[in-house]
Amino acid sequence: MPTTVRSFAKINIGLCIGTRRGDGFHELRTVYQTIDLHDRVTVAVSEGEGIELRCAAPGVPCDQTNTCWRLTERAMTQLGVKRHVRINIEKRLPIRGGLGGASSNAVAALLALEREVRREIPVSDRLRLAAEVGSDLPLFLIGGTVLGVGRGEEVYPLPEPPSSFCVLATPRVAVSTPQAFADWDNLPAATKLTVPAPSDRINLFSSAVFLGLQDLCSRPNEAGRSTSGVPASEGGGRAETLLLDLVRTGIANDFESVVFPQHPELAQVKSVLAGEGAFHASLSGSGSAVYGLFASRETAEKAAVKLRAQSVPVHVTRTVGRKEYWQQLLVAETDNRQLATDH
Question: In whole angstroms, what is the distance from residue 22 CA to residue 31 CA?
Fold first, then answer.
C-alpha cells in the first residue's frame, strides 16, 4: 500500500556567507527552522525495477535531475532494493522559493521508501546520502530548530523555542541561488570593506547563536528553576523566545544585500512585515520567499491582510518543533492508509 508523508518547508533564521571553499561551495552558518507549510510525497513499491516520478506542478523535473530521484536511487542501492519505485509529489510549496521544497521532498521520499520496504538506513548513512545530494537535505532528517554549518549540510539540533506564528510571503519572483552566490562574490570591494572579513563574520554569527543558547539555558523551566539549576528569581525568567534572543544579536541573511537591490519588491514585503509587528522578518535562503515571525495569530493575520491587499501571495503558518515534526510525518502516513481502507 502506498505511503504518504508530509514534506515540510524550512526558513532560515539568519544566514552568513563565508569564503569560497576549495570544493567550490561557500562556508555557511545558518539556523534552519521547519514550518507547518508542506507538500505531500507518496511512494509505492511494486514488482519490477527503476524509478517513476510524477508531479503535476510546472517546472518540476520528473527525471534523474530531480532531487527526489537522486536520493531515492542512492537509498535503493544502500538498502539493496531492486523494485519498481513510484514517487508522486503533490506540490504546495513554491518552486525555487528558498524554502527547501525540493530537498524536503527528497527526504520525505526516502522515509516513505523505508516504510514501504520495511527496512531502515542507519542514521549516519542517511545523513551522508542526503549531504551527497544537496546541502540542505540533512536538516530535514532532524527537523525543528537546526544549526547548519559547513556548506549547510553539517547539522546540529538546537534547543527548541516555543512555536511562533509565521507569515510567509511568496512573491512570484524567481531567484537563482547560484547567481545569488556569484553576485555576493562580485560585490564591490568598497562594499566589502564596510563589513568584517568572511572568517570574522562566521565567528560573529556562531557567537550570536551560542549567546542565545546560553540565555536559553538560564531560563526557568516548568518547575520554576532554570535548566542550569539557577532559581527563576535569580535567572531573570524572561518570556521571550530563543528566536527573539537570536535576532536581537543582529544575525541577518547575507543574501538580502544582493537579492533586494535586484528585486526591491521583496525588500518592500520585509518592510511591511516588520511594520506590522514581526519580531523578525527576513528573506529565506536566497529567496524569493520572505517571512515574518509574530507573537500572536492576530498580528500575523493582520500583516497577511495588508500583504494580500497589495496582491502578494501569503500564507499564515507557524514554526514546527522537532517532536511535532516527526509526529506529523507519521500521522500523514496513518491518514493515507486509513483513507485507502475507507475506500
Answer: 24
Q: In this predicted model, what pLDDT tens digit does every residue of 180-202 receive, in sequence order? A: 999 998 887 545 445 556 666 66
Active-site residue numbers? 10, 136
Beta bridge partners of 166: 293, 317
Task: Report how far residue 87's alpha carbon sits from residue 51's, in angstroms, rounded to the nearest whole number.
Answer: 8
CA dist 144 → 111, 205, 313 (Å): 17, 19, 25
| Residues sharing a CB contact under 8 Å with residue 330, sequence separation 6 or more, in sequence order | none
The predicted-structure confidence for 7-45, as pLDDT tens digits, reads as follows 999 999 989 898 888 888 898 989 999 999 999 999 999
DSSP string, 234-288: HH------HHHHHHHTT--BTTHHHHHHH-HHHHHHHHHHHHTT-SEEEE-TTSS
Total-model pTM:
0.84
The three-point CA angle 63-65-68 to 5° equals 80
Amino acid at 187: L
Q: Which residues of 322-342 are buried (b: 16+ CB within 10 A; e: fewer)?
A: bebbeebbeebbeebeeeeee
Q: Structural domain boundaries of the chain?
A: 3-159+322-331, 165-318
From 94, 104, 140, select the one nearest 288 (Cα to Cα).
94
Class of domain 3-159+322-331: alpha beta
Helix (H) or strand (E) holding 109: helix 101-117
Is-same-fold flag (3-159+322-331; 165-318)? no
Task: Choose among 167, 115, 118: nearest CA to 318.
Answer: 167
Evaluated on CA atoms 220, 222, 224, 227, the torsion sign reads: negative
Least confident piece of the model among 180-184, 222-226, 253-257: 222-226
Q: Which fold has domain 165-318?
A: Alpha-Beta Plaits (3.30.70)
275's grid cell: 511594520
